[in-house]
Amino acid sequence: MRFRTLFRLLALVPLTFALAPVGPVLGAAAEMGVRHRIDVMVSAEPDAPVLARLKGAKGELSFTVRLSANSRESKFFGMLRPSFPDVVVPDGPGKPLVQQTKLWEEDVCHQRRGLPKVTVTQLGGHFAEGEARIEISAINRHIGVLVPPDELTPGIKLDQGSDSFGLFYAFRAQSRNSRLNVDLKIYPIDCFL
After folding, report:
1. Residue among 135, 80, 73, 84 nearest 107 (CA)
2. C-alpha distances in Å from residue 147, one per residue of 42, 150, 181
3. Residue 132 gets which letter from DSSP?
4. Which residues contact 24 (CB under 8 A, 6 or more apart)?
5. Residue-wise pLDDT tens digits, 80-118
């Protein structure tokens, strides 16, 4: 009985060596990784005060985005503060206040570890001058502080889609009174580690 078991094991040894690759395999695919790009676009709801009263008026917008994108190969945590000084209020609700613009992009390809965490924490700006001027100051709700007059609700998940840059995941922050939307698109870009 022992001899049969030993014989079978010895018979498997040459088969194992025959199937095992000798040296590095030429043409083997490198391991796939990912890097992320985040774009931003600002629009107004159809019932926004800006669209109702100030079509064609000029203004400016700025906001703060908290970003956390960490992996073994790349670490980033910080506040991004983009500003758009020459915003023109469109003549209809279907057009954005700020066209899609690149906000941030990773330089390093890294392991797949999920999407970066992005949160719009503040939205500010103004439109028009004089008595017609509309000020915008929307912030997130914080524990222990009164609800802000123009509350900014972040993290509204939108449907994923694809465009000329590729597949994206979209999230929206919306201000309650000023009725403005800050849409963030996160693009996972395939790359080789």
Report:
1. 73
2. 23, 8, 19
3. G
4. none
5. 999 999 999 998 878 999 999 999 999 999 998 889 999
CB distance 130 to 174 below 8 Å: no
* Its pTM surpasses 0.85: no
Tokens 């899609």 label which residue?
Answer: 100
**Distance set, CA 12 to CA 3, 15, 63, 99, 120 (Å):** 14, 5, 66, 65, 61
Amino acid (1-letter code) at residue 95:
K
> Three-state SS for 136?
strand
- C-alpha distances out from residue 33 to 110, 168, 190, Å: 5, 16, 6
| Torsion angles phi and psi, residue 2, rounded to 5 | -65, -40
Cross-strand bridge partners of residue 93? none
